[in-house]
User: Which sequence fits this backbone?
């Protein structure tokens, strides 16, 4: 296995192609298709999909019934097969073919000079501008063999899927143009029969808004089928007698657009993307209803035939031809980020509002540190109070300085509480902490600079202990502030500590999203300018637990220096929680996302000075830490976590929701996989 090779890492490179066609000139179209196929092969493409009836042209009407055209179409197909016999990629091309006493609109799969199978179009449109049944027969329900282009006994029918032993997760299904538009499509059946990638060679003349309709259908089809989807429409050269053509090409994966081409171009058009077969497989395993649906149609699907080809994937470092988001919990596109922030914030607010209604309108008790998490929790609480038309003074906020609390964070906490108009008090935990450390016989109580875990957790535990007793005293509940990322890494104090609360509004929010939620709150004017100014100051503050004292001029305790950069750890969390990928697969994706700070896009508003890059050694180092902490010892904290809403689609860690695992599991399998990752390439 090569770490840098996409095929070894669960990807499959696909091209959707369109090219200027010469109608009724199969030889010229075959030659142009071969040229484009060679360009695709040079880029490591494993599957290239060309338009419907691309060898003859689609807009021939009754010329399809001319014997000379049909003979030349077969000759062109044979020529194309011969001239691509040295290419490893699988081609899907279109041609009119005779079968028994009828003519069929066919997609032909070709690999290394061999015609693998022929899939006829199942559903022929005869409405508006379409009149395909005048020339063609529908292929739905047909299953047999065909002699074509000098080859005998080639599988023929809409019941074909194509597989290869070298890459068992790649299974190809084919549907043709109108087949996508029907309610129960051939592509859906192929997917239930095992296809992970669907090819759609299409003609589809263009009208206003048709391109948007195609995109919607392809997105929906790939999303429902949990599949890759390659769509290639006819373009330049088709007859303009009554129609026009744009050559739109699209590649989707599980509802997400990976690549698309320009349109209305009088030259070959190619969209190329790497479809993640690992993600498709993981989605299908997790979404059990997918296979339940297969069982409902088991009798029909039992007739599907598998055509095996000896595809050998390209080797070496081919790059990665798709965008891998640095922040999988945070969209790069501004409009989508705004929408996600709107939804995430309101999920939290509405969940807390409902909890307050359900238990008799308690006051809310929150410990505010001046950090991101507690600041976000209190602005969620403030909005919940507003929704209930209750005074914000019913929020009881406490800042509880310890031995390492900085003046900056204490000032931020104080300013935020006061500008929000909540009830606020300072409760110094140091006297109680000294008493506890003394009773424990801890060296710090005797004047030694012993800053161990016990020293840190005495402070964290006392803060939570005070909050719970204050909630008892004032008729309130403790609102938790710890986030999803901290729960994943076990970066919280168990029991009487920040792991526990009566209700944790942040439990489903990853650290990398919280800063964007706060920016969204500022940008959308959820609170006044004074609150916004304080929130900006909090965003600029280093993430620190502030539990270990530092001398003047020394750098304060840094969370990310201990457990790793949150951007990397949230990346690791997403692919672990959402898809269950191996550490090697995660590292490969992380490397492509993070190796170059100048490449790709960053979420809107992300600070320039924080736009870091990470080499493979750093990615491996922090992935090892993640696996040790996530799989090795932190589950017991998650198994006992309080209620809190699921927020992101990537998942939650609630044992009552997305994630269940034994608290005494071993991390050895995951750590061993990490060790197989090279330190550099």
Assistant:
């Amino acid at each position: 296995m090569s770490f840098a090779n996409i095929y070894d890492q669960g990807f499959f490179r696909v091209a959707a192609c369109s090219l200027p066609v010469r109608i009724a000139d199969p030889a010229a179209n075959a030659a142009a298709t071969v040229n484009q196929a060679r360009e695709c092969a040079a880029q490591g493409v494993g599957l290239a999909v060309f338009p419907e009836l691309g060898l003859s042209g689609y807009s021939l009407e009754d010329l399809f019934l001319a014997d000379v055209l049909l003979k030349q179409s077969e000759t062109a197909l044979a020529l194309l097969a011969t001239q691509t016999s040295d290419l490893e990629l699988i081609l899907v091309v279109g041609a009119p073919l005779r079968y028994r006493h009828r003519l069929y609109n066919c997609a032909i799969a070709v690999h290394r000079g061999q015609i693998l199978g022929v899939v006829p179009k199942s559903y022929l449109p005869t409405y508006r501008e379409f009149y395909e049944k005048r020339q063609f027969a529908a292929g739905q329900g047909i299953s047999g063999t065909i002699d074509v282009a000098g080859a005998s006994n080639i599988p023929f029918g809409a019941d074909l899927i194509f597989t290869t032993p070298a890459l068992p997760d790649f299974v190809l299904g084919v549907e043709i143009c109108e087949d996508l538009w029907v309610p129960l499509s051939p592509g859906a059946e192929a997917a239930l029969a095992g296809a992970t990638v669907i090819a759609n060679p299409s003609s589809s003349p263009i009208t206003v808004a048709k391109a948007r309709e195609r995109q919607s259908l392809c997105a929906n089809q790939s999303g429902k089928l949990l599949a890759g989807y390659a769509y290639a429409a006819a373009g330049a050269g088709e007859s303009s007698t009554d129609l026009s053509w744009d050559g739109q090409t699209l590649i989707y994966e599980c509802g997400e657009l990976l690549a698309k081409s320009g349109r209305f171009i009088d030259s070959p058009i190619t969209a190329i993307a790497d479809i993640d077969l690992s993600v498709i497989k993981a989605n299908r395993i997790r979404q059990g209803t997918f296979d339940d649906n297969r069982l409902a149609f088991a009798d029909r699907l039992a007739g599907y035939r598998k055509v095996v080809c000896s595809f050998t994937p390209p080797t070496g470092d081919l790059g990665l031809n798709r965008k891998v988001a640095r922040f999988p919990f945070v969209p790069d596109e501004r409009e989508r980020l705004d929408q996600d922030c709107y939804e995430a914030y309101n999920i939290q607010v509405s969940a807390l509002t409902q909890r307050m209604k359900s238990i008799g309108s308690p006051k809310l008790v929150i410990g505010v540190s001046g950090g991101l998490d507690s600041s976000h929790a209190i602005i969620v609480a403030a909005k919940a109070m507003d929704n209930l038309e209750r005074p914000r003074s019913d929020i009881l906020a406490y800042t509880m300085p310890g031995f390492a609390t900085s003046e900056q964070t204490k000032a931020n906490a104080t300013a935020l509480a006061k500008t929000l108009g909540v009830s606020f008090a300072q409760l110094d935990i140091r006297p109680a902490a000294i008493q506890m450390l003394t009773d424990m016989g801890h060296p710090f109580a005797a004047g030694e600079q012993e800053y161990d875990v016990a020293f840190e957790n005495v402070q964290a535990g006392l803060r939570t202990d005070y909050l719970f007793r204050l909630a008892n005293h004032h008729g309130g509940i403790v609102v938790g502030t710890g986030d999803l990322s901290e729960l994943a890494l076990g970066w919280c104090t168990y029991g009487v500590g920040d792991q526990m609360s009566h209700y944790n509004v942040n439990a489903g929010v990853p650290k990398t999203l919280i800063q964007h939620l706060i920016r969204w709150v500022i940008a959308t004017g959820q609170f006044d300018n004074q609150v916004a100014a304080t929130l900006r100051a909090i965003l600029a503050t280093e993430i620190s637990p502030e539990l270990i004292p530092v001398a003047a001029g020394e750098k304060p305790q840094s969370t990310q220096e201990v457990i790793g950069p949150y951007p990397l750890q949230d990346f690791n969390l997403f692919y672990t929680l959402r898809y269950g990928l191996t550490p090697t697969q995660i590292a490969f994706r992380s490397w492509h996302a993070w190796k170059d700070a100048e490449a790709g896009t960053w979420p809107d508003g992300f600070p320039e000075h924080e736009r870091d890059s990470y080499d493979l050694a750093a990615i491996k180092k922090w992935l090892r830490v993640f696996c040790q902490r996530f799989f090795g010892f932190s589950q017991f904290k998650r198994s006992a976590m309080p209620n809190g809403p699921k927020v992101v689609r990537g998942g939650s860690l609630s044992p009552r929701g997305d994630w269940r695992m034994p608290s005494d599991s071993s991390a050895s399998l995951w750590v061993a996989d990490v060790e197989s990752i090279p330190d550099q390439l």
